[in-house]
Amino acid sequence: MSGFIALHQWQHYNARAKHRPAWKDRFHDATNRRLADGRGVFSAGGRVSLISKVLLAQLGLSVVLAMLFWGVGGRVPAYSALLGGLTCVVPNAFLALRLVVPRRDPGPGALMRAAYIGELGKLALTVLMFGTVFVLVRPLAAWPLFAGFIGTQLMTLAGFLMREKEVRVEERTKNGA
């Protein structure tokens, strides 16, 4: 009887490892399972990923802020606000591309390296774009420029709220509620 229990436990221990050990399985961690399922690491569950939604919302907010500043202050505040928004959107798009582009090594280490390089590139692009705007654009309204940048940057927080909402909806549909 004890031999049967030992054999039974042995048969069910790591059942997938009949052909290869579990620690060598490509889809062992959550990141690789998401990539294998086709959901991606930062997928929102629909056709458009969460990152794309946030970038489009940032771009849309930049345009809306530029139109508001145009109505209130004229042409110079309008293009200053638009440039501030673009100074946020373009580096964020660079970071997003670094995170979602497939890599040869889909492991978590490669994702962390891509995130570090993407964040450093985002910081460098932000500094470069602000420097370029301050040197090349005359006349420039500083208040609308920074309002556009900060408002667009705050749209990233809305992305976290969208993600939280989608996770709750996904849990409800999974549970049948």
Determine Rg (CA atoms, Å): 24 Å
- Mean pLDDT comes to 79
Per DSSP, what share of the residues sits in E-state strands of 2 or more residues? under 5%
Structure annotation, total helices: 6
- Judged by helices, strands and strand pairing, the structural class is mainly alpha
Q: What is the global morphology?
A: flat
The major pleated sheet works out as: none
- SSE arrangement, N to C: HHHHHH
Residue windows where pLDDT falls under 50 for at least 5 positions: 2-14
The overall strand count is 0
User: First CA to last CA: what distance?
Assistant: 45 Å
Number of domains: 2
Features:
mainly alpha
Write the layout of secondary structure elements.
Elements: H1 2-12, H2 30-37, H3 50-73, H4 75-100, H5 108-136, H6 142-175
Structure description:
The protein has 177 residues and is mostly helical. It folds into 2 domains: 1-38, no CATH class; 47-175, no CATH class. The protein contains 6 helices and no strands. Helix 4 (75-100) packs across helix 6 (142-175). The chain starts with a helix and ends with a helix. The relative contact order is 0.13.
